Amino acid sequence: MENTEESPACEQGPTPPERGLLHIWQSAGPSEQLCPERVLLSRPVLQAALGEHHGVLLTQGGQVYSFGELLWRDLSIPVSAPLLEVSLLGKTVVRVAAGGFHCGALSEQGNIFMWGENTAGQCGLTDRGKVTNITVSEPCLVSVVDSEVVPPAVVRIMDLACGREHSLALSSQNELWAWGSGCQLGLVTNSFPVFRPQKVEHLAGRHVIQVACGAYHSLALVRSLPPQNFNTQNCPEKRERGQSPHYSVTEREELSTVDDAHYCPLGVELTEALTSETSPRRRGPRRRFQPGGRSAGSSPGSGSGSCPFSEDSKSTTKQKNLTVGASLEPDGLNADHLTQTDGSPKSHSLSGWRANKSSAFHDEMELQSLLQKLSGHSLETQHTTGPGDTDSLSSHTSDDSCVSSTPSVDLLTSSYESPIKSQTTNNSGVSGSCSSSPVCLEEVRLCLEAEKKELQGQKSSSLTNINQKANAAANRRRSLPGTPTYGSPRRRRPCGCRPSSAGRTQAAAPEEAGDGLPSLETEVWSWGRGSEGQLGHGDQLARLQPLCIKSLTGEEVIKVAAGSHHSLALSAQCQVYSWGSNMCGQLGHVNSPVTVPQQAKLSEGLRVWDVSAGQSHSLLIADGDCVQPILLYCGQHQEPMSTQSERSHQSQRSCQRSPNRAESYTVRPTLLPFCMEMGYISTVCSGGQSSAVLADQNIMGFISAIHELASRERHFYCWLSSMRKLLLGPLRNREGVCPSLGEPCTHLFFSLSESFVRLSALIGQHSTSLSYFLHIVQGRDVTSLPLLTHTEHFLDIYKEYCSALGNFQVMGGFKSLHKLSLECLGSQQTVLAQLCVSDQSVSGDVDLVSLLYWPLQQLHQYSRALLKLAACYDVLTIEYQSLHQACSQYESLSLSLLRRKKEAETTFLFWKTHSGKNTEVLRLPQRRVVCESSNRSLTLQNAGRFSNHWFILFNDALVHTQGAIPSQSFFSTHHIYPLTCLWVKPVTEDSSGHYAIKITCPEESFTLVASTPQEKNKWVRSLNQAVDQVLGGGGQGSSPGVAAMSRTASYTFTGEGRFKDAHYNGAWLAGRVHGRGTMKWPDGRTYTGNFKNGQEDGYGECIIPNKVLNKPDSYQGHWRDGKIHGFGKYKYASGEVYEGCFCDGQRHGYGMMSSGKQVRTSSSVFIGQWVQDRKTGYGVYDDITRGEKYMGLWLDDQRHGSAVVVTQYGVYYEGTFKENKMSGAGLLVSDDDTAFHGDFSDDWTINGKGVLSLANGDCLDGQFSGEWSTGLKVVGTYTKPAIEEPENKERNSLFRLGQYVVPAGERWGCVFNECWSRLGCDAPGRGERTTAWENIAVTITTSRRQSPNLSRSQSKVLECLEFIPQHEEPVTTANYDNIRRYLIKACETPLHPLGWLVETLVTVYRMTYVGVGSNRRLLRQAVQEVQAYLIHYYSIVRFLFPGLPDDGGIIPDPPASPTTSRRNSDTAEEGVVVVCCSSLLLPLLLPRLYPPLFTLYCLQEEQEEAQYWDRILRLNKQPDQSLLSFLGVQEKFWPLWMSILGEKKQIVSSSKDACFVSAVETLQQISTTFTPSDKLLVIQKTFEELTQEIKPLLDDDFLWCMDDLLPLFIYVVLRARIRNLGAEVSLIEDLMDPNVQFGEMGLMFTTLKACYIQIQHESTS
Rounded to a whole number, what is the distance in angstroms from the first to the last CA of the chain? Predict the structure, then answer.
């Protein structure tokens, strides 16, 4: 943590700090002589912890100081000059704790350091010394290791508490760890001491918020579990046991199985060996450290008035009530540390704890009046003698033998008289019923036997000595309180993002609920010894395991504190619950029994917000009448002695007898008057007989502002709690609430109650949070105040409460509620009346309206408080800005809610005056009246003379009633216009002189006429403000006519038309549906998408229910003027899917219809042109069920015109169709090349003349009839051609393929037309170029906005395409490349029209030529189709870039980049580039079309390919040299050496695949390329590689001749082993750029083709 102190707007100098001021005094009651000693340190004290006779201080910067009796170092340090713990320097300590006789410190890293007495292992197993160390003189690290996890992990600690013989630590995981001795550890073990910290398993899994240690008991504050799994963490039996003091025998055996497990309820072993061992060891160090003047056996911590059985024997005693103040029998055992003579230099060793100071109040009357005011206790017992009471000799160190209202007579005195006698002063305060529990007698008997055995071995005759040596189990009864144990600040800061400061040691809120505020759903668990009832379970039994105190569950406990033998719990409602030992009145009440928590008796108007408990006293901080906190004391009053000698006499006498019972002790907490002198107290601390407070001076009003805010909030929470208890709770639980209030009001009352409860819960958490904030106000960042961190939450809760309250008021619920409250509360009315803050109503009745509206004033208090805090900071600081911003937020909400309150009142009065059946229809809880025209100030334009019009403006609607008589609230009809869909426009005054306002609604418009200009302005302003507010604006200062023309709103249409009864939610513009929205019809139709001028327009999704099939149709795509228009996807209920173009709601243009995946009679896909919902034009129909594909023309959903049909059996037909069947001349070719040409009359049915050609060349000519698949009837001539006969050209032309095919250029016109229309052209080439480019940019921009899930690369491409390239200028080779790059990018995304075109062309091509369409006879058509695509595509590109020349044209080149021209096409002459569509566009299209096209080539070349491959396999079996010689390669070209991994090796006759390796590898790459130009480049590169390898063997000026080159290249082709080389060759030949056919590349290609043919015909011998 940083060592800086938070100090608003001012820096601290080296002068004594104004924060963290420490005051210490002996706690012996509020007599005037008590003068707290001010400890002057150079740094602010952040925390103090007090033990029995010592204390520990933590100052800013993490330094630790000790004072008092430091027995482990044989030192006595006065508090005025505390001793710095040097070994802790640099450790940044954030928390300290003091036990009975040991100390602990916690570092910022979560490490624990312990020092002091270690006889019971309470300092743990330190790294210095052995386990048996009875003292640890210097702070040593104690590691807390969780060995259950693998590997074992060091646990980070955030809180620490110490008792007399035990220590507890709270981890950052909110789990509890314990070490030391005794049942107060809560561990499952029977061997003590426990030196290594162990987890308290019983609380594992629970969320521990805070811990406190008494002398021999422990308390934990635990967050409650959610109700459903409440019992999962602890077994039900254990819970039940805590309930009743009477147990069954079996339960008793479970609890104290002394014989089996050597356990007693105290958690101390009773075996002989252990008892005799531990006694001297535990007492040992005490004797060694005795200062002079003490009897050897009286150790400073020994519980002199308590024998080992004091814990248990009391519960066996019979009780007798004695008066308070009766003196008790003296006993010689109560010496303890008062045994020094008065001349001893260390007389009591506490003389240094206080300086002589006179009373803080000079004026006697002032003191009296203050006490009268703040304490309900009478003041007669307060004696005010002179100052100077320096020693509290009668502050009885034996906390068990102070004073008792009901002393007991021990049952066992006869058997064991002497040591027990002191027990007569001890009392549990329980009435006799549970005192005879046999368990306790058994325990006492066991303890006595062990004690007797030990006593027999004692030699000392001194009774005191014997008694104290016998005191092993309850050796030290002096206690230390649980110091204020809040969580470590580290835990509170989410991910350490807030700046830390050393001041934040006393960590703030103990625990935070999920929303960052402290949780109020808590439980208190206790365990350890319970002889004084300090466990709070209603008995005096010990508990070995933590047990929940049932009575405190639900009491919202926010802090626990433990004195030696009593316990305190502080609730969020500022109540203190106390239980345990009450001998000195330390519980603050005299209620019985003291074994269960009881409320301390606080005077009226005192609210406690911090507690601490000492040995036999309690100290509380409370809010009084003023802002400054006050101190309340519970415990014994000290009667001041007249002289010093009396005190020393008392000291001497006290060696011989027990101290006198106090003359008096407080029956209720009493004010300590000196607290007003101390400043603003932030923390209180008690221990032993001492008390300490930390206070702050009020710097610049900062401290007082924080205290005032916290005090107000606590007061407010108490008020809210009282309201819940007195009013809302009883009324909610009352059965008659529904009949009395009526149905709607009951519902509203319950929602009001719920919002009140939510508000109350928030304020409870906030007030608790502020109390924690006060403890460490000097170190906290003011910006961490919940009012700043949770502003939105506060505002929402207050708004919600105000709305619920207003709604209830508007519906007139208060009248019935008042009546109900009178019946329900009766006598408690007066108590409720006290809660009324505002003036009482005349009758004296409680005004429930003002009572329930009162919480809203708190918002103004918040803003005041924040303003005060802001004033302490410089204007430029973050703190000032945060405070100022929050201040204005709370203030504006405060004003806004007051307005809403007024509106609710006005509306209630309106309904009251206009009550009636008709108006009740309009009366809604959320509805408020804004203004109305009952004074005839507003009427309808052109209204009839006798018609009555009454307009009422509510906050959500304008109501127009006709035939109304406002005074009688009677009207015949009314119409409600919701304000969300109301547009107001003041009409400029025309010559008619009307003051008119035009009102536009979705289905009608009308004009209102005002009586005066003022009325007109009033109504326009009111209407606009109301509309503005409904639409989410502030409604403040809107000038007339400003309410948004465009807005988002919901509306249900009622009038006739397409939207009848439809509900719309979305954007509007001036009364019409416009923008994005959703329309839902009652029949289930829904449309979500864009609207324009009241109709669907743009992209939208629609669902249309199909009642017949019980499934909906759905459409996603474009609309225009309320109809489907443009490109979209329509899914029919039948399962069919259409994706394509629409026009006016009909399929029109390019589209694809698939029958879907449903199990149907036929499955099919059609892709092609549609006209007015019917297939018309060119299209491909794939009948998947029949295995046929039709590619041709359609008319009105029927096949009609030229077409090709292929079947899955390889049959190919081309011809004409009429009325959906084959008709007229046609050509049919089967798979085995049998062909028929003739007349067809039906599908596959021949009827008429024809010629049949068989595969072997035979021919049949004549009349044919019948179906092709079943058999043909023939009347004709059969001819077998002679071998020498010349070719019959006429017959060949009959069987030529492609006669009846639709020309490639006429196919797919619909696809190109759609692309043109996307560019904004009506027909190909007709349109504005600039419009086309703008359309492209708009399409891409909108697509980018509407597709949020694009990858980075996609959005980058779209970003580039958004920019319109330079398209007007003439094209040169320099910018030709830019065009090429643009086209490549455009084709990457289907959002670009050109990209869509490419994608669609690929789809139609694959639909045509994949599957059944993979027929070799379709190859020519497939090639022609690709070429047709290029021509069409090029025309579109030329339209966009008019600078491009015609196909085959020339681009002039600034002679700079021959590389570019070389790449694109062959240079015809220097300086020009020939552009053709294949060079520009084929690289874009062919890679995507390649698979189906190449497959057709392979099928076409199948036979030649087989021959070629057979030769390749055979010839490749030969070694290189024999193959070269076989191919006729001249020996001068034979390589002699080959390079393997850079090593030269000679090629021998057996070498294989060693020659021309690089050329072979290069040629193999031909299969990896797509376009002819790329394939030609591979061939060219192969030649270059070949030449490179030959060059070293020949002269430099060598030139190839074909005779040399061909055999060598054949070798390379053979060794390359390329599959489907014939298909590659054919593809290149068909699609290569015509410009390169006769150049160098053309020649190289011809060489490759020649090689292919040569290899086919090569003899293999």
Answer: 96
Phi and psi based region of residue 298 (left: phi greater than 0; alpha: psi -120 to 50; beta: remaining): beta
Helix 1621-1631 and helix 1572-1590: axis angle, to 10°?
120
Closest by CA to 751, choosing from 818, 670, 806, 788, is: 806
Decide: helix, strand or coil at residue 219. strand
CB atoms within 10 A of CB 735: 6
> At 564, is the secondary structure helix, strand, or coil?
coil
Radius of gyration, alpha carbons of the chain: 51
CB atoms within 10 A of CB 1154: 17
**What span, in angstroms and rounded, lies between the C-alpha atoms of 1021 and 172?**
59
In the chain, count H helices and then E strands: 40, 66
DSSP state of 726: I
* Per-residue CA distances from 1479 to 1035, 1457, 1462, 1488, 1565 (Å): 66, 17, 11, 16, 20
Is residue 553 within 8 Å of 523, Cβ to Cβ? yes
CB 113 within 8 A of CB 104: yes
C-alpha 1454/C-alpha 1373 separation (Å) is: 7
Gap between the Cα atoms of 571 and 235, Å rounded: 27
445 Cβ contact list (under 8 Å, min separation 6)? none
CA of residue 1509 relative to chain centroid, distance: 67
CA distance 1134 to 1112: 9
DSSP letter (8 states) at residue 267: S
Asked whether the CA dihedral 1016, 1017, 1018, 1024 is positive or negative, the reply is positive
| Alpha carbon distances (Å) from 433 to 309, 551, 597, 1374 | 20, 20, 18, 111
- How many angstroms separate the most distant Cα atoms in the chain? 160
**Residue 261, SS3 per DSSP:** helix
What amino acid occupies position 170? L
CA distance 1152 to 981: 42
**Residue-level pLDDT at 465:** 39
Is the four-CA dihedral 1202, 1207, 1210, 1211 of positive or negative sign? Answer: negative
Q: Which stretch, 384-393, 671-680, 1155-1164, has highest mean pLDDT?
A: 671-680
Binned at pLDDT 50, 70 and 90, residue 341 comes out as very low
d(CA 43, CA 18): 9
- Long-range CB contact pairs, 1083-1090, < 8 A, 24+: 1084/1112, 1089/1119, 1090/1119
Outline where DSSP puts E strands in 60-184: 63-70, 75-77, 83-84, 93-98, 102-107, 112-117, 135-142, 145-146, 153-154, 157-162, 166-171, 176-180
Confidence of residue 1474 (pLDDT cuts 50, 70, 90): confident
Taking the mean position of all CA atoms in its chain, how far away is CA 1142?
Answer: 46
Least confident of 92-101, 347-356, 1007-1016, 1134-1143: 347-356
Run of H or E residues at 1119: strand 1111-1120
The C-alpha angle 686, 689, 692, rounded to 5 degrees, equals 35
Predicted pLDDT of residue 425:
36
Helix (H, G, I), strand (E, B) or coil at 1324: coil
- What's the rounded Cα separation, in Å, for the pair 1122 and 1126? 12
CA 40 and chain centroid, separation: 48
Residue 930 burial (10 A CB sphere; 0-12, 13-18, 19+): buried
DSSP 1377-1408: HHHHHHHHHHTT-TTSHHHHHHHHHHHHHHHH
CA distances 1330 to 127, 558, 1367, 1426, 1440, Å, are: 86, 75, 10, 29, 9
- Structure confidence at residue 1087 as a pLDDT band (50, 70, 90): very high
Quote the percentage of the chain above a pLDDT of 90: 35
